[in-house]
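Incident log, structure service

09:12 report received: a user says their structure output differs between two submissions of the same chain.
09:20 pulled the input from the user's history:
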Amino acid sequence: MFEKLKINKKYLSIGLITLIIGVILVCVYQISRHAGDIFLTLRIMLAHLFNALSPIIYAFIISYILYRPLLFLEKWWIKGWKAVFKKEPDAKKVRLICLLLLILSLLGSLFLLIQAVVPPLVQNLLTIGADIPHVQMILTESLSKLAAYFKSLHITDDQIHQVTLYITGMLSGFLKKMFASGTGMVTNVATFCLNLFATLILTFYFLKDTEIIFDVLDKVSTITLKPTFKLKLKHFIHDVHQIFGGFVLGQLLDALLVGIASTILLFIIGHPFALLIGFIAGVMNVIPYIGPMIGATLAIILGLFTDIKLGLLGAALLIIYQQIDGNFIQPKILGDSTGLAPVWIFMAILIGGNYFGTIGMILSVPVLALIKVYLSRRLHKIKKETPASSTNLHL
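09:34 re-ran on a clean worker, output below:
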């Protein structure tokens, strides 16, 4: 009887294992059949989750950028207070006063910037939209002057016409996207205002209570994580802060300088779209190598609305300035924050841009720099653990 029971248990185990394997195979089959729908559902769920968390994410990013200026203000406020009153000020009051000063100065600067920059930018875009047919005619005439050269390269008039249509179509599509995004923002004004208000409130509290928040997170991690894992996590966050913080903040500062300098240079030569080109050149400058080329190309294309020579002169000035910025100004701001060779940076930008668009192009360089840091540490550890005799290899 017991032997039969053992045999039955054996077959029962085999049957259960077979059933489990069958269920797994059916699940894998169903998932493979509906993979597209599943990924689409996951994408929609992630999009909704991002929309819900967006005020927190934006507030964190803004707080991270503003934290250093806040500490700088606090430092000078405390120094001035000690010089006048000969005693240490209350830390909480100093934080609140400096935070309010920082916010008021930023809101005032933003208001003045919008008043000074937005109307001319909109006017530039409207002018471009109205003059696109005129640009197509100018471009066709300019290219026709080079007809003899194009014929030597076996380029036909029809191909030249197709190029002009492509360029003007590209400009037209760009303008449509710009105005569509603006219209979308207006139609979703209630949601935008709500998210903006939530972001500003969260930013205020993130900056006001930064040390308290980090203290709470430290206590939670002490309770929930193993000491070794917690230590590794702290090292990782420190590395991310050093690489991303130095690179991204440096790039933003350099982009601001590039935008201002490009606008001034184009104003000097009388370029009608100096503000628009300077603005885009500054924004695009956060993308290494590729960004600066966009500003110069834009100067040539928008120069077609007035004079091709003006466009070429503007592009030449921007290229000269970008060489100065890339070789002297940017290294002073960023230092060797990545330690990567240009070829690796260029490859990272291409891969990041292909998969994640503009954000991928910007963040791909610091991500690669972070990977390099960990690979270098791993290699150093291997070299220390490997006997000297086995590492003396000549390739």
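09:41 both user submissions now match this output. Likely a transient worker issue. Closing.
09:42 reviewer note: Residues 389-395 have pLDDT under 50 and may be disordered. The radius of gyration is 29 Å.
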